[in-house]
Amino acid sequence: MVETHDHFTKRLGKLGRKHEQMTHGYTTKVGKDGLITVTPKARRARSTSGITFLLLVALGFFAFKAFMLAASGPDAYGDRLAGMKEGTVIEQAGAFVLGVDPITQKLADLAGPILR
Description:
By secondary structure, this protein is mainly α. It has a domain at 47-115. 71% of the residues lie in helices and 9% in strands. It has a two-stranded antiparallel sheet. α2 crosses α3 (74-85) and α3 (74-85) runs antiparallel to α4 (89-97). It is elongated.
């Protein structure tokens, strides 16, 4: 009797977990014998979504810097940064962040002929 109750409890727990998984979607299949089986859809890992978002923000930032460099030209861009370097602490930090780096320079070199 105890073995039957333990087996029933395990089955109940398994069904509860399957039901919880199916709240995120499920698929049904009809087997060769006509039996309909319902299986939960696989869930994607959400741990990479934050990293993907940060990478997209960084890519957008570098693209913005490259567009500004290509549109205004290196001399005008350098003059604007020089003006920012002599400003307040926030402007100096902005000048440091917006400075020309190798990634920005490569992207500006690629975008320059397209913009002109």
